[in-house]
Amino acid sequence: MEGFFHALFFLIILLHVISTARCTAAAAAAAAAGIKQAASDRAALLSFKSLVDDAPFGALSSWNNGSLHYCRWRGVSCGRRHPNRATALDLKSLRLAGLISPSVANLTFIQTIDLSDNMLDGSIPEELGSLRRLRYLNLSVNSLSGTIPSSLGNCSNLRLLNLRGDNLNGEIPPTLSRLSDLQVLLLNQNMLQGTIPDSLGNLSSLLILSLDDNSLSGAMPPSFGSLLSLERLEILFTNLTGTIPPTLTNLSAMNTLALRRNNLHGEIPHFTKLPFLSYLDCGYNHLSGTIPISLGRLSSLEYLLLGMNN
């Protein structure tokens, strides 16, 4: 019997040693993976810097400090759960010039990219479409050219896409309609062409849509009547034709509707179902008929601009 207990004790010790060894190996593997991923983030950031000129402010001078961890570099933030992974790159209004490196797509934990109000040129890297954690992408007020990458439709967590005030051309990618969580889409003040994709009516979470100051053509999609969360719709100074879709009267959350300086014709719909509408601008079109009496019943309406029509 004594031999049995000795054998049992030895077996328990052996199992404990094996379990400890496995845990140690797993921890070592995780640590090695973390070091590798951290090195990847650092390399991606340095690759970004290599294509950017930060004169005259030297905004990225701290990025040359080998003793300073990249999570403490200017404009870089890292996460709490993954303390060595970059989660935000905020370098707005620093007069940065140059190109956006495709290596930014290697920042696989990034949630925020704000490079707005700089002097960046070149195209938007197609590789950014691989950033599945990205929620906020602001590249507005630069000199970016080329087309909007269709791959951005793969950024499934995107909440805000701001490409306002660049030199982008081509058509609006229909793939953007996959962004079911998108709340703000600003593509105004570019040189976009073609028609507005009907599929944008699938953006059920959208609050703000601005497409003004482009060279768009065709009619406004009736599918916009499905954007039930929409609060602001701005399509001014484009070449839209056709009529104002009656489906827009379903947008009960709308407070701003701006369709100024297009080639719209037909009558003004009865917007009686828009209790929060405070700003309505349909001026400088080819609208005809009478001004709906129902507009006088909109208790929130403060600005009504209908001049230069028929």
CATH class: Alpha Beta
pLDDT < 50 runs, ≥5 residues: 23-34
**Number of strand segments:** 18
Strand arrangement within the widest β-sheet reads 2-3-5-7-8-9-11-13-14-16-18
Under CATH, the homologous superfamily reads: Ribonuclease Inhibitor
Written as H for each helix and E for each strand, in order along the chain, the element string is HEEEEEEEEEEEEEEEEEE
Give the fraction of residues assigned to helices.
10-25%
Q: What is the CATH topology assignment?
A: Leucine-rich repeat, LRR (right-handed beta-alpha superhelix)
Residues in β-strands, percent: 15-25%
How many H/I helices? Answer: 1
Mean model confidence by pLDDT: 91
End-to-end distance, in Å? 107 Å
* Second rung of CATH, namely the architecture: Alpha-Beta Horseshoe
Sheet having the most strands? 11 strands, mixed
In one word, what is the shape? elongated
Please state the CA-atom Rg, rounded to the nearest Å.
27 Å
What's the arrangement of secondary structure elements?
Elements: H1 2-50, E1 52-53, E2 76-78, E3 86-90, E4 97-98, E5 112-114, E6 119-120, E7 136-138, E8 160-162, E9 184-186, E10 193-194, E11 208-210, E12 215-216, E13 232-234, E14 256-258, E15 265-266, E16 279-281, E17 286-287, E18 303-305
Parallel strand pairs: 3-5, 4-6, 5-7, 7-8, 8-9, 9-11, 10-12, 11-13, 13-14, 14-16, 15-17, 16-18
Antiparallel strand pairs: 1-4, 2-3
